[in-house]
Automatic annotation (TrEMBL):
InterPro entries: Falgellar_hook_FlgE_sf, Flagellar_FlgE/F/G, Flg_bb/hook_C_dom, FlgE/F/G-like, FlgE_D2, LlgE_F_G-like_D1. Residues 86-130 form the Flagellar hook protein FlgE/F/G-like D1 domain. It comes from Caldimicrobium thiodismutans. Keywords: Bacterial flagellum. SUPFAM superfamilies: Flagellar hook protein flgE. The lineage of its organism: Bacteria, Pseudomonadati, Thermodesulfobacteriota, Thermodesulfobacteria, Thermodesulfobacteriales. Residues 186-341 form the Flagellar hook protein FlgE D2 domain. GO terms for biological process: bacterial-type flagellum-dependent swarming motility. NCBIfam families: FlgEFG_subfam. Residues 416-456 form the Flagellar basal-body/hook protein C-terminal domain. Belongs to the flagella basal body rod proteins family. This is Flagellar hook protein FlgE. GO terms for cellular component: bacterial-type flagellum basal body; bacterial-type flagellum hook; cytosol. A flexible structure which links the flagellar filament to the drive apparatus in the basal body.
């Protein structure tokens, strides 16, 4: 091989060490890059056949066999920013650009950005959208993943259910005149029931179809026997009744409740109330719970009254937790809920759970699930991914990812308010740098030594 061959061998070492130093330098400079996956330089020796007769082989230097990306887990850093996401375990976030190209990343630095006049979405600093699926989706593929949209406005919801846990006073005297007979919106348009004509009133509210809050009242009075009570559901302002004029304007639902010796409810009868006071009985054995259609400012709205019991098809009563009771105790309301709400404007994303479900909160204090993040997995063949910069990977031609919904039981889960740091080990990289430096110096010495020997040889000639 001679001295020139020796110089070439030294050159291959210099070239390999230079590439190795570049890889190490890249790892060190990306020590603080979120989601960065460091690389490892893999060296290989080169051989040359010295003689075809004897078949002996001699070393001919070194070369770079591969620069392998290491996909080990990086440490997790808490940020308390809900849209900062870290993957613990396997998986990659799936993002797409405005041309529909798909990329994969472990960099979970996302923020809320406007995509059109009605929606927001989560994007990274490159303007790429984080892809997801419907909130309750269990599976997904590349065709079903999409940039999920967060509505800027949550439409108002009209109340359809009124629920209350009530105590009625068993010490109230028996009353022979019903609430329907006492109620008169013609004589008293603003206060159809006079003070003292009922035992108690519970002040509630509901939301109409426009999202406007509407005060309502549940009047209660002792029935014509010691074990009964009557109730009347009415608007606090009878003028909002869009049905027209009449004695019962503002009143919609009337009922009688019968209680057992222990104060538990044992039977119920309810009727819808017409403007003239006609009562239309409801079939509670079919409905289960009393329902009525309110007409608020000309718009019909069906409402169910839940007092903690259900009437079965056989007309028996199933009492639920918190059912209405009649006992020797002052009137009390332990709870009241209704399922309506006004229009809400997007406020924040408060948390993204480990299963990747994203919930958006609105100014009406309501939240809705808007999407579920799916992760891509290349376990066992991560080498099918190629780095393209900015923390992004691209799948090579013909490679298909497996998409899964993250969870603690799956191969990877998501932490909200956290980021995955670079997986570079600085101490290890500094040792590599020292070794590469010494190797580079030694290979340089090989070349200078061979050069000096060649110069001596030429002088002697």
């Amino acid at each position: 091989m001679g001295l020139f061959g020796t110089m070439y061998i030294g050159y291959t070492g210099l070239f390999s060490d230079t590439i190795g130093t570049k890889v190490t330098a890249d790892n060190i400079t990306n020590l603080n890059t979120v989601g960065f996956k460091g690389s490892r330089t893999e060296f290989a020796n080169m051989l040359v056949r010295a003689s075809e007769v004897f078949g002996r082989e001699k070393g001919y230097g070194s070369r770079i066999k591969d620069i392998r990306t290491l996909f080990t887990q990086g440490s997790i850093q808490t940020t308390d920013i809900p849209t900062d996401l870290a993957i613990v375990g396997k998986g990659f976030f799936v993002v797409s650009d405005n041309k529909g190209n798909i990329y994969y990343t472990r960099d979970g630095q996302f923020f809320i950005n406007e995509v059109d006049k009605d929606h927001f979405t989560l994007q990274n600093a490159l303007g790429m959208n984080l892809l997801g699926a419907d909130p309750d989706a269990k599976t997904a593929d590349i065709t079903t993943l999409k940039p999920y949209l967060i509505p800027k406005v949550m439409p108002a919801k009209a109340t359809s259910l009124l629920s209350a846990e009530l105590i009625l006073d068993a010490r109230t005297p028996v009353n022979t005149t019903s609430l329907v007979d006492k109620y008169d919106a013609t004589l008293r348009p603003e206060k159809p029931l006079e003070e003292g004509s009922y035992a108690w009133v519970f002040d509630w509210y509901l939301y109409d179809q426009t999202g406007d809050i509407v005060p309502i009242k549940l009047y209660v009075d002792r029935g014509d026997s010691a074990n009964t009570y009557e109730v009347l559901l009415a608007l606090a302002d009878p003028g909002k009744d869009g049905r027209g004029s009449g004695k019962m304007k503002g009143a919609f639902l009337y009922g009688t409740l019968t209680f057992g010796g222990g104060g538990e409810i044992v039977s119920a009868n309810f009727s819808e109330v017409s403007l003239d006071g006609t009562l239309t009985p409801l079939s509670l054995s079919t409905l289960g719970k009393p329902k009525t259609t309110l007409n608020i400012n000309g718009k019909n709205q069906e409402v169910t009254l839940d007092l903690g019991f259900t009437v079965n098809p056989a007309n028996s009563i199933t009492r639920e937790m918190g059912s209405i009771k009649m006992i020797a105790n002052p009137f009390a309301q332990f709870g009241f809920t209704q399922d309506g709400y006004p229009l809400g404007v997007f406020d924040r994303i408060e948390i993204i759970n480990e299963e990747g479900q994203i919930r958006a909160w609105y100014t009406n204090q309501k939240d809705i699930p808007v999407a579920r993040i799916f992760l891509a997995d290349f376990s066992g063949y991560e080498e099918s991914l190629e780095k393209i910069g900015n923390g992004l990977f691209r799948a090579k031609a013909g490679v298909k990812a497996y998409f899964f919904a993250p969870s603690s039981a799956e191969r990877g889960r998501i932490l909200s308010g956290a980021l995955e740091n670079s997986n570079v080990d600085l101490a290890n990289e500094m040792v590599n740098l020292i070794v590469l430096q010494r190797s580079f110096q030694s290979n340089s010495r090989v070349i200078t030594t061979a050069d000096a020997m060649l110069e001596d040889f030429l002088r002697q000639r």
